[in-house]
From TrEMBL:
It comes from the Bacteria. This is N-Acetyl-D-glucosamine ABC transport system, sugar-binding protein. The lineage of its organism: Bacteria, Bacillati, Bacillota, Bacilli, Bacillales. SUPFAM superfamilies: Periplasmic binding protein-like II (SSF53850). InterPro entries: Bact_solute-bd_prot1 (IPR050490), SBP (IPR006059). Coiled coil: none annotated.
């Protein structure tokens, strides 16, 4: 008997929950038999949320209690047998199911799954332990050995290129950034998803185990297990309270979160709090290229349009967004520049000093161990933006199967099966978000309003694409945005041409 578990909205008390559980089990068991549905109450999260379901009683005993004291005899459907009554008609014999075909025997083949970190589950959580057990089960089922290959990032793509060119990729499934996958796809070095999946695979059915990732070069090549990814404006809640600033999530909920409000708060947070003539707190910080990419994406622009193979510097939406970023740096002076170099990547970490009110950051860049409390909202949508893209996903990555892999359909099937385990999370990526954020409202903000709304940034895929030069002229050398866009347009177009079609 299979019991489907769902969760009702709202909260119930512990005692009421037990009564409710027993009542629902009995009612639905008697009505629907093996298809009964049990509804369990959940509890809201505060700090350090615990969102999993806990079953505190044995369902087997519960269902036995519901059935009544009928001694385990045959069901009578409420009608007692009487002497002389005609016997019930014999049930028609059940059809014998065709024997399931034996899985292919790969003869001990080693399947390699690669990334620039260890993809093997650590075994620290219940789901990780279950997946390790599933991997062992799949290895035995297909007579294979699964090996997780960890290659240093700087060696990863050179190794990919060298081995693919020989016809023997160093791994069967590879993690790749989109900016690396685009050139590989254009060179015919990757297989399309439709080339290694079947209609029966989960990726083409319920999509609970695996999903297709966004297309590149007009085709779908990538796949991955459902998860959580996103970047937003994070804010130092402690500093906001100290400075008397309005909570950003309240502004977002009320529809007031836009570029004007962002700038207003950034200006209010940039101040000399002890009157010593030096600025003590700042409105904003971050790596300037990352900042510009995000505001451009949130305004419907892009530095490069890979689908149309066109530069994006001269796009009016891009120019408008870069003008706004220039205003933050050179007009309002609300950005903290710790290193003295506005183009320095290390400015990405400046927010960790604790004196910056707002900063852009992806999920992985924050965690519950930061020395201050923090929250998150989407980047404010620009005047010409939409809710489709709220951030620039410059680190987007997925799994790919290189050309030259033997039996790619079977390799993919085996990989997908390793994720066929009981789902212990309320939604994909829940455990990770709970480890990164301290508040339920931040977890739900990321899940509902940021995840899946990233514009994939591919300008780094093009040889020497001049994004850095373009922004340096504006943010460091105080050049006109429009003039700089025209200046670097030919160089950008030449870069696109070098990659080819």
């Amino acid at each position: 008997m299979k019991i489907k578990i769902t969760k009702p909205k709202g909260m119930i008390t512990k005692r009421a929950g037990k009564a409710f559980l027993f009542h629902e089990v009995c009612k639905r068991f008697k009505k629907d038999g093996a298809h009964s549905s049990i509804i369990l109450g959940g509890f809201g999260m505060k700090r350090r949320p615990k969102m999993g379901l806990v079953l505190g009683m044995s369902l087997t005993l519960l269902l036995s209690a519901c059935s009544g004291n009928n001694g385990g005899g045959a069901a009578t459907n409420g009608a007692a047998a009487t002497p002389g009554s005609e016997p019930a008609a014999s049930a028609a014999p059940a059809e014998t199911a065709a024997p399931e075909a034996a899985p292919p025997d790969l003869g001990g083949r080693v399947l390699k799954f690669a990334a620039w970190w260890d993809l093997k589950p650590a075994g620290n959580t219940a789901s990780e332990k279950e997946r390790l057990a599933k991997i062992a089960e799949v290895e035995k089922k297909y007579n294979v050995k699964i090996e997780f290959v960890n290659v240093p990032f700087e060696e990863y793509m050179p190794k990919f290129t060298a081995t693919v060119l020989t016809g023997e990729p160093f791994a069967d499934i590879m993690q790749m950034e989109y900016k690396s996958a685009l050139p590989a796809a254009l060179k015919g070095q990757l297989l399309k998803v439709d080339e290694f999946t079947s209609p029966e695979d989960d990726i083409n059915q319920e999509k609970k185990l695996m999903v297709r990732t966004p297309a590149i070069a007009g085709q779908e090549y990538g796949f991955d297990n459902p998860g959580m990814a996103g970047s937003g404006i994070h804010y130092n809640r402690d500093l906001f309270k100290k400075l008397g600033l309005p909570d950003l999530q309240e502004l977002y909920a009320s529809g007031q979160w836009n570029w004007d409000k962002f700038l207003e708060i950034a200006k209010q947070a940039t101040k000399d709090t002890d009157n010593d003539g030096k600025t003590d707190t700042y409105g904003f910080s971050g790596w300037s290229i990352d900042i510009a990419r995000n505001f451009v994406a949130a305004n419907g622009g892009a530095f490069v349009d890979p689908e149309n193979k066109a530069e994006g510097f001269t796009n009016p939406n891009t120019i408008e967004a870069v003008e706004f970023v220039n205003k933050l740096y050179n007009v309002e002076n609300v950005v903290k520049n710790k290193t003295g170099d506005r183009m320095n990547y290390e400015e990405f970490n400046t927010f960790k000093d604790g004196d910056v009110a707002m900063f852009p950051a992806p999920i992985w860049a924050v965690n519950s161990e930061l020395p201050f409390d923090f929250g998150v909202v989407p980047f404010p949508v620009g005047p010409h933006g939409s809710d489709k893209f709220t951030f620039a996903d410059s680190g987007s990555a997925a799994k790919f199967i290189p050309k030259g892999v033997k039996d790619p359909q079977l390799v993919y099937k085996i990989y997908e099966e390793t994720f066929d385990i009981a789902q212990t999370e309320d939604f994909p990526g829940q455990e990770w978000l709970e480890g990164q954020y301290n508040h339920e409202e931040d977890i739900m903000m990321m899940k509902d309003n940021i995840n899946g709304k990233g514009q994939i940034v591919l300008e780094d895929a093009y040889p020497d694409y001049p994004t850095g030069k373009f922004l340096t002229d504006i943010l460091v050398n105080s050049q006109s945005v429009t003039a700089s866009a025209q200046k670097y347009k030919p160089e950008a177009e030449a870069s696109i041409g070098k990659l080819g079609n």
